[in-house]
Amino acid sequence: MHDDLVQKIKRDPNYHELVKSRSRFGWTLTALMMVVYYGYILLIAFDKEFLAKKTGDGVMTWGMPIGLFVILFTVLVTGVYVRRANKRYDELTQAIHDKVQA
């Protein structure tokens, strides 16, 4: 019985669309996150002088807002994925569930 259910799901075109769409979107967001994170790490490694420059007359350096951007970008990427998952992927999952249960 369980193998029958698995085979029904694997044959469903909505399942294939879900897997393809989710994988492509996930890898795209992963690549963006890696570029931002490793870009920051490379900046730390190779241009410490830039990060140590003050942003104005105060005591804050460029490293602080850039580091904050990396953190906020992570939250943004997570929010984008959750929004897409709640909107698109849940619809496809429900369609697959309804079709298999019928």
From TrEMBL:
Which InterPro entries does its entry note? DUF485, Inner_membrane_assoc
Q: Does the keyword DNA-binding apply?
A: no
- Which top-level group of life is the source organism from? Bacteria
Decide whether keyword Plastid is in the record.
no
Q: Where are the transmembrane segments?
A: 25-46, 62-82
Q: Name one GO cellular component term.
A: plasma membrane
Keyword terms of this UniProt record = Membrane, Transmembrane, Transmembrane helix
- Mention any Pfam family matching this sequence: DUF485
PANTHER family per record: INNER MEMBRANE PROTEIN YJCH
User: What name is this protein filed under?
Assistant: DUF485 domain-containing protein
Biological source species: Duganella flavida
